[in-house]
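Exercise 7. Predict the joint structure of the components listed below.
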Amino acid sequence: MALLDIEGLSVRFQTSSGLFTAVEDVDIRVDRGEVWSIVGESGSGKSVSMLATMGLLPWTAQVTANRLEFDGQDLQRLSSRQRRRIVGGEMSMIFQEPMTSLNPCFTVGTQIDEMIKQHKGGSRKERHERALELLAQVGIPDPARRIKAYPHQLSGGMSQRVMIAMAISCDPRLLIADEPTTALDVTIQAQILELLLKLQEETGMALILITHDMGVVAETAKHVIVQYAGRQVEKQEVKSLFANPRHPYTEALLSALPERAGDKDRLPTIPGVVPGQHDRPTGCLFNPRCQYATDHCHEVEPVAAPDDPARTLCHYPLGEADAAGATPDDAPNPPPRPESTDHRSEVRP
Amino acid sequence: MLRFLLVKLAQLVPTFIGVTIVAFAFIRLLPGDPILLMAGERGISAERYAQLQSQFGFDRPLIVQYWDFLSGLFRGDLGNSLVTHSPVIHEFMSRFPATMELSIFALAFAVIIGLPAGVIAAIRRGKTLDHTIVGISLTGYSMPIFWWGLLLIMLFSGTLGWTPVSGRMSFIYFIQPVTGFMTIDSLIAGDWGAFLSALHHLILPAIVLGTIPLAVIARQTRSSMLEVLGEDYVRTARAKGLSSYRVIMVHTLRNALISVITVIGLQVGLLLAGAILTETIFSWPGIGKWMIDAISRRDYPSVQGGLVLIAFIVMIVNLLVDVAYGVVNPRIRH
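Solution:
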């Protein structure tokens, strides 16, 4: 049994101009101790799908799923009291903006203590000891002094360390990190990622890392989910994803990495933006930005081939053009593969 | 903390000087002459008028009169009332406890009802209960105090006969004044009947005086709560698996209170202003009624002295609010 088992997760928001589907048909199966990464641009619904799992979305969100289980428990059926026992205790989360994620009115110690008290209990002294131990564990110097600090007295990196200390305080079996390094300096980013991986290894918890940075994915995760405009477009192990990206979006993300741009003066970009509520294209959601798009892509929504382990959401997954029968029957003309005229084919590993 | 207090006190000095100028100028800008008013319908001879003018010092240049007032102020001497000839400070202090008692009860009423109403409205945003609370508080805010007071008197004192129309206590009780607060003095005297009578007399004026502050506090609490509910740290609190009660009452309200406290502090000035109307309607023997009488008699020392004292009290209360603000908001304290 998987630790986190999500099938067909969809999130819709009631807005003034009707229902907006932020996340559609997302599947994730995370086993104990696994490190997963969800990658995609802003607006891809990465955070929303994880916030939905945690039950942290505002009341305007309608969350539906065929399966939404944590350790065999159906999260959709649990009472809010039962669910609160899992959220924070067994499954915890850290966020993008560490500076605003801590309550400015309470000391660091109080906020960690509150979490331990909620899920583990113990005497005041035991909880205090545990908080000190946690602060030391996440690499905060002089924990005895820092425990009395207020959030505004901490830097962004320190705040994120405190958030991590809080998140792991009750020995969760799953930690969801929602772009934990986006708001931090580059040097601090590496430290925080290292810390997360170290803690993951030490405690054996599973880790889901949400990021828009392919570099972070390469350094951390074992499995990757690529999300675009609320849809899951590809799911692979990190090695094969970097070696053989199946979805044109994944390929475009990878080619934007400086390491892959070769000696080019400018890094390649993906033109356009992720479609929002009002500018959804027909057919494949990626077609306006896809260099391989055909008329077929503009008209018909793609479905993942049942025999495709990467579950690629594309009419013409990459690396299949030559394989016989891989093209859909209703797509008579496979798109021309750009050859050496395109930089992507040069840098593709 | 001491330094914080001293700095705040020093900042009050220019404000205070400004208040003395306004208070001094205000009553003199009003048409009418205290000596002519005293003389009444019979009129007064020119010689007697000049004699009285020089006796009260009104014949001297304004700047000299102002300096006289200011230097007296720093000696703690506000002069004597032109009408009663007793020191203004005594007149003020004998009436101030009545106003203070009324204001405290009014503010307590406003906070005890307004704060929870604002919290509930924020939690039930967009629901019927929210609309009801917002609607009622807008009505309360827009209602003229004197009209609202008269309506309540007509209903509760007139038709229903539940509450007395005026005064602070029934005439059958006599309580030795100690603090000047009827509720406290009657408790000190151990007279339950008097205590209940004092409360009985307080209810209606306190509700009337507290209505506008209640509306303001409820609306501020609601909008402040809504703002804080959208903050990242509230999501963190929910991510910790805390009960919604704890998320709202501890994590949200504590932060929302910061702006609510400022608003409560500002209401104190409003209460003292509102007291003038409320005390007139309910014949409440406080400074509001006293000021009205002093103004209509052009009692220069009483009006300027009274204004300065009221302004001083408002400034001190705002200072206390600043201190309280520091207590709830660690970002100010450190």
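Discussion. The interface with chain A takes residues 231-233, 235-244, 251, 254-255, 328-331, 334 of chain B (CB under 8 Å).
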